[in-house]
């Protein structure tokens, strides 16, 4: 049996300016997601959790907490952008051009804008991406620039893994 390594994300050397990554997983936002995230972050704006209040707004229904949208779209990008991150350096130019509602499915993609070696840490590089999140109808709901410090190949803490011990061989 051949053991094949799973995807471990990109390292600094793998990024090229202009590359676009279509992040593989979409996510449907539920009422529970919105209520829990709003409560966890102590957001008291009733437009997120009071259906009666929200019905009286121009939207007619609750809006998904915008910080949930930032977190979700950032999370969707991890497998392609920051699986091997040493540190997030910042989110800039966050824009929310359209609302997200409970029941929307969010997808995302990122484009590599900049790449440079770290001047102070030889084991990492700096990468900036522009990420776009959009709903099931293709409507853009969020955009942002994100800068990350990414490990170089062979320098991440998870570069070596132990082999499993004590597994019985399968017999035919």
Automatic annotation (TrEMBL):
InterPro entries: HotDog_dom_sf (IPR029069), MC_hydratase (IPR048274), MCH/BMMD (IPR052342). Pfam families: MC_hydratase. One of its GO terms (molecular function) is lyase activity. It comes from the Bacteria. Signal peptide: none annotated. Gene3D superfamilies: Hotdog Thioesterase. PANTHER family: BETA-METHYLMALYL-COA DEHYDRATASE, MONOAMINE OXIDASE-RELATED. This is MaoC family dehydratase.
